[in-house]
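quick one, 390 residues, struct below
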Amino acid sequence: MPDRAPQPVDRQLPTDEARDLISLVRDIAQDEIAPKAAEEEGAGHFPREVFTLLSRTGLLGLPYASEHGGADQPYEVYLQVLEELAAARLTVGLGVSVHTLSSYALATYGTKEQRVEHLPAMLGGGLLGAYCLSEPSSGSDAASLRTRAVRDGEDWVITGTKAWITHGGVADFYTVMARTGEEGPRGITAFLVPADAEGVSAAAPEKKMGMKGSPTAQVHFDGVRVPDSRRIGDEGQGFAIALSALDSGRLGIAACAIGVAQAALDEAVGYATGRQQFGRPIADFQGLRFMLADMATQIEAGRALYLAAARLRDAGRPFAKQAAMAKLHCTDTAMKVTIDAVQVLGGYGYTADFPAERYMREAKVLQIVEGTNQIQRMVIARHLAGPETR
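---
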């Protein structure tokens, strides 16, 4: 039905290399990801072959050092790659974001020996990661986690269950936060656990509203033995590592949200300019024109917000508040824009024959993952007014 093809986002990129990178990503998205997205999401198919391709082309380690298999790209560029991938299929964009999050602890807090041993395979060797913080009884209150790691000679024995794990059951490695000491945030330590370690298993994937191609599952650790050489950072440093990782991960979610919103806007514009009612395109009617204008403005504002936060990160400046703002604004924008896109398409928007309803279902989860938007508001308020009084 659309008679106006969507125009690529006009991006401000810092280098010719970054422009070439975006061009490569657009080709992969157009040729390998988007054509299969609707069918595979409907069937609940996880596109492992796409992640293998992304790894082979260097897109799973973009913000990390080239000496360990990364691509030395600033977050400003990496996030725009995520946006392009998420616009083609959120399962892929979010999957790359989660993999990057899962690699963060070792890349940032690991020893030189750990980075040399593990990072090349994690970033460019075809492996896929998962991040294990949440549990059935500890979501927003992550510091109350119960999974425990007990020292046994030169090993640690990990027992517990993690919940809501993206790539649970299909990942090759898990970055796991486990309790090694006292209650609260100071008793948590981070570990790198191979998925094929004895005692690691995954439950059946959750039956979700959207993102059906991305497995989300509980992961069980039943007396899993890992050597101390797979402990990341110091004992008791795990919660600080987890929070630091989430600051960056929230920017990834923000970028994915803008990708979904942009895809929804493109669908709405294409439909509105092609659909005829009362003898002219429905895009001629002021009510719809203003709706499209608002959608586009919200998307541009969200893109500017996540890029401003990314540039702070790239400059080595504090960015936690801005990351929370970006995650909050961009995911709320994605929800509103996708709802409006369904409205623009009318009855067709409510059918699976058009992607608008899928975008709307997928946008919802972005307001929840990696810290609900209520938690983001708490983070922002603490930066403004200090910690809450008890």
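The first strand starts at residue 129 and ends at 132.
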